Amino acid sequence: MTLLAGGLISLLLLNAAVNQDSFQLNKLEKETTGYTDEQQQLQQEVDQYGAPGTLERKARELGMVPGGNPAFLDPDGSVRGTPQRATAPPRPPASKPATPTPSPSPGTPPPASTMAGPPPTTPTTTPPGR
């Protein structure tokens, strides 16, 4: 009888341990799924930054221009091709702002920025000897 009770108790403890490990395994699988999704999202972001159109736009923003014709060195040291310098296309002329600044009408008080600070004072001089 004692042997049977001991076997049942050990079976119960073993079952509880397996259930606890099962819950931890489930938690770790969910965590792994989250990390996999994050990794895929980051990989897509890296792929977008590495796309030819994105690289070209970023390079132009930095002032880079497409290269000219390259020259190649043969294994014997001779140059094959004629290199050309990379040239930037001419820049468009700078345009003036389209919206002029409004001038205040005669009955309108000046903006607060012009009223800031003490009022202007006129310099006075005192005659010497006083």
Question: How does this model look, in words?
Answer:
The protein is mainly α. The protein contains three helices and two strands. It has helices at residues 2-49, 52-61, 112-115; strands at residues 72-73, 79-80. The chain has a two-stranded antiparallel sheet.
Structural Rg: 40 Å
Measured distance between first and last alpha carbons? 126 Å
Mean pLDDT: 78
Strand order of the largest sheet: 1-2
The total count of helices amounts to 3
Beta strands, count: 2
Main beta sheet strand tally, sense and closure? 2 strands, antiparallel
Helix percent reads 40-55%
- Along the chain, the helix and strand elements come as HHEEH
Multimeric state of these chains?
single chain
* Class based on secondary structure composition and strand pairing: mainly alpha
- Poorly predicted spans: none
Query: What is the strand content?
Result: under 5%
The geometry reads as: elongated
List keywords for this structure.
2 strands; mainly alpha
SSE topology sketch:
Blueprint: H1 2-49, H2 52-61, E1 72-73, E2 79-80, H3 112-115
Antiparallel strand pairs: 1-2
Gist?
With 130 residues, the chain is mainly α.
